[in-house]
Amino acid sequence: MFAAHIGDAGTRGSDTDGWRWLWIADGRSSAIFAVLAGITVSLLAAKDLAGPAHAAARVATRGALLMAAGYLLDALGTPVDVILTNLGLMFVLVIPLMRLRPPLLLAASVAAATIGSFVARQETDRLDGWPVIEKLVSEHYPAIAWAGYVLVGMAVGKLDIQAHRTALGLTCGGAVTAVASYGLGILWGGAAPWSDVGARSPVGAAWASVAPHSTTTFEIIGNAGVALAVIGACVAAARPSLGLLPLLSFGSMSLTMYTAHVLIIAAVGSAIVWEPSNEAFVVTTLALVAVATVWRVVAGSGPLERLVTRASTAVADALAPS
């Protein structure tokens, strides 16, 4: 997401060169964020010894906190389309499905990627002005379609994700899914995933576009494949070690780091987005990785992660005591 927002791919501002390979972050980074959120939901439910009602209350509270955080970050007026409110709504939407087995969760994710995608693109911004509900069909991250990513993550979270076989399956299966879905979209006239041509462009077949944030079935399934491949590869490669400590620390507090980068954009000004610099991108990323590492060593879990965990547990204890 840092790359998508402040990295220079040569598509924004006066610099037309940039690092062209940064196109891979557009759309796909936020999809990975949503899939990881789904994994968190399943892991939380599996470890909650107080029962399903307690787990559901914790997920609902997390969703509410994310919605509030999203609106607060939106109020800063940055050029970033903040995902947190949409993601919080997705948390609430998937609560009734938390106890489903992986095959049914994947079936539900396909429904979101097909039916949800169609409705979201037909009704884009139809609910503008209705707090929270508007995020169901917002232009970016429409919850009825993007819930598909969370559902995929929930299915993965119910597997033995640390097993080598699972990691290999996610990596290979995700890569095949991504290539097949993107390939079919391009074959049927859709804009390519490295294109900045959106779903409403007259160029190509809008329904088959796999351009970032086009929210078509092909883009959603392709992005989900990329997310699975990345997660599988990271699980296979990650082992507790001093060398990986900075990355593991950074990844363990993704909500805090996401919020921090939006705050930095607000403090520096919108020029960091509209006239991006890869020097600023690298410096920002390294600085926040360093902050996360120090925080992890000194204080443990990230500040926002700790706040969300404590608040959601307290609410669940009050509403659904064991």
Description:
This protein has about 325 residues and is mainly α. It has a domain at about 15-160. It contains 13 helices and no strands. It has helices at about 1-5, 30-45, 50-75, 85-95, 100-120, 145-155, 165-185, 215-235, 245-250, 255-270, 270-275, 280-300, 305-320. Helix 2 crosses helix 8 (about 215-235), helix 3 (about 50-75) packs antiparallel against helix 4 and helix 5 (about 100-120) crosses helix 8. The longest helix is centred in the middle third of the chain and has 24 residues, at about 165-185. Residues about 200 have low confidence and may be disordered.
The count of strands amounts to: 0
Query: Gap between N and C termini, in Å?
Result: 38 Å
Oligomer: single chain
- Poorly predicted sequence stretches spanning 5 or more consecutive residues: 198-202
Average pLDDT confidence is: 93
Measured by DSSP, the beta-strand proportion falls in under 5%
Give Rg in angstroms. 19 Å
- Sum up the overall morphology in one term: globular
Derived from helix and strand composition plus strand pairing, the structural class reads mainly alpha
Order of helices and strands: HHHHHHHHHHHHH
The major sheet is characterized as: none
Helical content class:
55-70%
The helix count comes to 13
Set out the fold topology.
Layout (H helix, E strand, L loop, with lengths): L1 H5 L21 H20 L4 H23 L9 H11 L7 H21 L20 H15 L6 H24 L29 H21 L7 H8 L1 H15 L2 H4 L3 H22 L3 H17 L3
Helix pairs in contact: 2-6, 2-8, 3-4, 3-13, 4-6, 5-6, 5-8, 7-8, 9-12
Key terms:
globular, single chain, mainly alpha, 322 residues
